[in-house]
Specification:
Strand content: 5-15%
Strand order of the largest sheet: 1-8-7-4-5-6-2-3
Distance between the termini: 80 Å
CATH architecture of one domain: 3-Layer(aba) Sandwich
Radius of gyration: 25 Å
CATH superfamily of one domain: Glutaredoxin
CATH class of one domain: Alpha Beta
Shape: globular
Structural class: alpha+beta
Helix content: 40-55%
Order of helices and strands: EEEEHEHEHEEHHHHHHHHH
């Protein structure tokens, strides 16, 4: 059967695109993995909310291009809040060097410090979004919407004209509009815009083998952005993935991380008796018999014919009595 495709002989209407040569506009927003940083006084601070969006600038005190960038931002404001985060770590020496550069350049916006872990997360996001991601280098700037989601990246020095265009057009774009702004060339689409949660799901899939904890962060974002059967399926998968991580960390005796993933699994799938039983066993092995007994009882409430949970509850109650 011939399944040939024919197109009308007509000019393709141009789609307006961002004119940035050193920028990448994402076809859909994706959650920023960095949620906190050390402020200029060394205190842990959450990434603040913003009504109008935000420009996040990553820089180093030893980078001459970053010095120029901060000076430019000081002399010529970009029309939206700027958070400048130095990537040199959290030591007093690094903070002193960063503060000296801030004062020297006259930058008056918010600033702080991040270290290797946060920088690795930003790089992993780039690696997952693009088939070929360059090595991490500063300055690197991210345009965030009012929900602290990344909608554009700028590698190297900022082009103020590009940033102004993106601030005016990209920041307020949604759905099809944002998809149309992403390609760096004109054309006509023959596909629908990506579904909600697509970008987060893509990052989750591309990182799940090598970076499972990073992956579940984006799997949750994908689930929370989805609806109906898709949301239920992703939430069920999220619960399973947290459970597997909890068991792995429990095996390695990393109790805090294990407890976090057990709790996260139960948060999205609270009626799983096996998770309650295994979480209870983990707590009991740490001497937390009362907390363990609570989960054994919950497992039995959900599944009355659960012999292992009955046995574990009896042991926990006996040890709890002995400890009084």
């Amino acid at each position: 059967m011939d399944r040939g495709v024919s197109l009308k002989a007509e000019a393709l209407p141009a789609v307006v695109t961002s004119s940035g040569r050193a920028s990448v506009v994402l076809p859909a927003p994706v959650r920023l993995p960095l949620a906190s940083y050390d402020d200029e006084k060394g205190r842990r601070a959450k990434l603040p909310d913003s009504i109008s969006g935000r420009l996040l600038v990553l820089w180093s005190a030893s980078c001459p291009h970053c010095r120029e960038e901060l000076s430019e931002l000081a002399d010529s404001p970009v029309g939206l809040p700027v958070l400048a985060l130095c990537v040199d770590g959290g030591s007093e020496e690094a903070r002193s060097a960063a503060q000296a550069l801030i004062l020297e350049t006259g930058f008056t916006g918010a600033w702080g410090m991040v270290g290797e872990e946060e920088i690795e997360q930003v790089f992993l996001l780039q690696e997952a979004l693009f088939d070929s991601a360059p090595q991490f280098a500063v300055p690197l700037s991210l345009l965030l919407n009012n929900e602290n989601e990344v909608i554009a990246l700028y590698r190297g020095a900022l082009n103020k004209e590009v940033l102004e265009y993106d601030r005016r057009e990209v920041l307020r774009a949604t759905g099809t509009q944002l998809r149309d702004l992403a390609p760096p060339f004109p054309g006509r689409w023959f596909t629908e815009p990506a579904a909600a949660g697509y970008a987060s799901n893509l990052v989750a899939r591309r990182t799940q083998e090598r970076y499972p904890e990073f992956s579940v962060f984006y799997l949750r974002a994908a689930a929370e952005s989805s609806q109906g059967d898709k949301r239920r399926a992703l939430m069920a998968e999220l619960g399973r993935r947290h459970y597997l991580l909890a068991m792995e960390f429990d095996r390695r005796q990393l109790s805090e991380r294990s407890a976090f993933h057990f709790s996260s699994s139960l948060e999205v799938a609270p009626t799983n008796p096996s998770v309650h039983n295994d979480f209870g066993s983990s707590l009991a092995r740490r001497g937390l018999f009362k907390e363990g007994a609570h989960h054994f009882m919950e497992a039995l409430r959900l599944k009355p014919d659960f012999p292992l949970a009955k046995e574990n509850l009896a042991k926990a109650q006996r040890l709890l009595e002995q400890s009084k």
